[in-house]
Design a protein that fits this description.
The complex is a heterodimer of chains A (about 140) and B (about 290). With about 140 residues, chain A is mostly beta strands. Helices cover about 0% and strands about 45% of the residues of chain A. In chain A, strands 8-10-4-3-1-13 form a six-stranded antiparallel beta sheet, with no helix packed on it. In chain A, strands 2-12-11-6-7 form a five-stranded antiparallel beta sheet, with no helix packed on it. In chain A, strands 5-9 form a two-stranded antiparallel ribbon. Chain B is about 30% helix and about 25% strand. The chains are: A mainly beta (about 140), B alpha+beta (about 290). Chains A and B meet through strand 3, strand 4, strand 10 and strand 13 of A and strand 3, strand 4 and strand 7 of B.
C-alpha cells in the first residue's frame, strides 16, 4: 500500500451507533495515522456527571473484515483506560483517538471499543469515508 | 567621477541643488555634509550618519513602544512577534537599544488580557484563514444545546465584544453566515477547498449595527430609547455603549434619556438587565416589556 502524504478530513461522516453520550465528529487521515475526533456530553444519570473512559483495546476495522487496527494513542482522554471524571451533569469532553493509517479509498469503517457490546460502549459502525466527501487539509 | 560610477550625466547645478536639499532637511534628513579641500569632495561630518536611517521623532518612537507593549499583551501570537521584530528593525536603524530598556521601564498600559481566554490560541489561524480565504474545519460545542458539531466555516471576520472573541463566516453546515465563540471551538484545521463568499454578508451589520454578536431573531436595526438614573447616567455619558448613542434629554433630577440605533441582541438585553431598576427602556414597546 502506498501511503498518501496528503492529509484528508471527513467532516461528520455518516455512521450507526447506539451510543447517545458520545458523538463521532471527524475522521482525519493524517498519512501515518488515522485520527478520530469525538465529543462526550455528561448526562444526569450520575450525580456529578459520572466518568468516561476508553478501553485500551479499542480498534478500527476497514470493512469488510479488514485487519483490526488497535488504538495507538489518545488526546484529552487517558489511553490506558483510566477514568476521566466529569465535573457535573453539564460537563463535556472533546477528545481524539489515534489508530494506524488506513488506505485512502472509499470505504466503511467500524470503530469498536467492545465487541458484542451491550450498548453502553463506544461502538460506531459503518462509518462512511467517501473519497468524494474527503477534504484535503493544507 | 560620479557620472562614471553611476553611468549617468548630471549638471553641476543639479548636484549642488541635491546637496543643498540634503543639508537643509527638506526630506527630514539634515545631512551633516561638509566640503573637504584636501580631498576636493563632499563628506559626512558625522561618520555614522546615513540617509538610510528612518527619521522618527521622540513622540513617534514613544508611540511605537506603546503599540509594541499593547501587542505584547497578545502574547503567544506570531502577529505580535512579527510586529516586535519590525519595531526592532526600525529601532536598530535608529540605533536605539530596545533590548536593554530602562530598568524602571514597565508597560504603562494595562488592559484585560484576552490571551488568557479559552480558544484565543486559534486567533492567528483564523485571521490568516480569513486573509488567505481558506475555509476551516473545527469542532464546536454549543452551550445552549449541549451538543458538539463538526463545522466547516468560510471565515469573513473576527469580532471582539466584551473581551470575548467571535469568528463570523459562512457555515457550510448551516448554509448561512453564522457567529461562533472562540471559547467553544476545538482544533481548527485549514482546508484546501474553494472559498465561498456569501453575497448577502454585510460587514457593517456585524461591526457597526449589531450591539454584540447574537442578534435577536426577527429584529432589525431600530431606535432604542432608554433612561438612566442619577450616577449611572454619568457613566453612560462618559462611556457610550454604542457609537450611535445620543443624549436626548437631561432631567433636573440627574436622570438622562439616551437613544441608540442598533440591531438588538441577546447581549443588549443582558446588559440592560444588569442595571436593574437604574435603567428604564421606553422605546420600542417590545423591549420595554422584556426589560421590565
Amino acid at each position: 500500500m502506498v501511503k498518501s502524504l496528503a492529509k484528508y478530513l471527513f467532516s461528520a461522516p455518516g455512521h450507526k451507533t447506539q451510543c447517545t453520550q458520545v458523538q463521532l465528529l471527524r475522521v482525519i487521515l493524517e498519512g501515518d495515522f488515522t485520527r478520530v475526533d469525538m465529543g462526550c456530553q455528561a448526562t444526569s444519570y450520575y450525580t456529578k456527571g459520572g466518568w468516561i473512559r476508553i478501553a485500551e483495546t479499542t480498534f478500527i476495522q476497514v470493512l469488510p473484515a479488514g485487519m483490526k487496527l488497535k488504538m495507538i494513542g489518545t488526546e484529552n482522554i487517558p489511553k490506558d483506560g483510566t477514568k476521566h471524571e466529569l465535573k457535573s451533569t453539564k460537563d463535556w469532553l472533546y477528545f481524539s483517538l489515534f489508530f494506524p493509517a488506513i488506505p485512502f479509498k472509499t470505504c466503511k469503517v467500524n470503530l469498536i471499543e467492545k465487541e458484542n457490546s451491550t450498548g453502553n460502549d463506544f461502538n460506531f459502525y459503518d462509518i462512511e469515508l467517501k473519497i468524494s466527501e474527503a477534504i484535503k487539509l493544507l | 567621477m560620479l557620472e562614471e560610477k553611476l553611468d549617468k550625466s548630471f549638471s553641476v547645478s543639479q548636484v549642488q541643488k541635491d546637496i543643498k536639499g540634503l543639508k537643509e532637511g527638506a526630506m527630514g534628513l539634515k545631512a551633516p555634509i561638509k566640503f573637504s579641500k584636501s580631498q576636493n569632495g563632499y563628506y559626512y561630518q558625522d561618520p555614522d550618519f546615513s540617509i538610510k536611517t528612518v527619521p522618527l521623532s521622540e513622540d513617534e518612537l514613544q508611540s511605537l513602544h506603546q503599540a509594541a507593549d499593547l501587542l505584547k499583551i497578545f502574547s503567544g501570537s506570531r502577529l505580535s512577534q512579527y510586529f516586535n521584530d519590525a519595531v526592532h528593525k526600525i529601532e536598530a536603524a535608529l540605533r536605539v537599544d530596545y533590548d536593554q530598556p530602562d530598568a524602571n521601564r514597565y508597560p504603562i498600559i494595562d488592559i484585560e488580557r484576552p490571551s488568557a481566554h479559552k480558544g484565543f490560541q486559534y486567533f492567528e489561524l483564523l485571521v490568516e484563514a480569513a486573509q488567505k480565504q481558506n475555509p476551516v474545519s473545527f469542532v464546536y460545542y454549543c452551550y445552549e444545546e449541549r451538543k458538539f458539531g463538526a463545522v466547516i466555516l468560510h471565515t469573513y471576520m473576527l469580532k471582539e465584544f466584551h473581551n470575548c472573541w467571535y469568528v463570523i463566516g459562512y457555515s457550510e453546515n448551516h448554509k448561512e453566515v453564522r457567529v461562533f465563540g472562540l471559547d467553544r471551538i476545538y482544533d481548527p484545521m485549514v482546508l484546501n477547498r474553494k472559498f465561498i463568499e456569501d453575497k448577502k454578508f454585510n460587514p457593517d451589520f456585524y461591526s457597526k449595527d449589531l450591539y454584540g454578536v447574537l442578534p435577536l431573531q426577527g429584529q432589525e436595526k431600530q431606535r432604542i430609547v432608554f433612561t438612566v438614573f442619577s450616577k449611572l447616567g454619568n457613566l453612560f455619558v462618559a462611556n457610550p455603549i454604542h457609537h450611535s448613542q445620543k443624549i436626548i434629554k437631561y432631567h433636573e433630577s440627574g436622570t438622562i434619556d439616551f437613544e441608540i440605533e442598533v440591531v438588538p441582541t441577546l447581549e443588549l438585553l443582558q446588559d440592560f438587565l444588569k442595571y436593574g431598576s437604574q435603567l428604564f427602556v421606553s422605546e420600542p414597546a417590545w423591549l420595554k416589556k422584556e426589560i421590565l
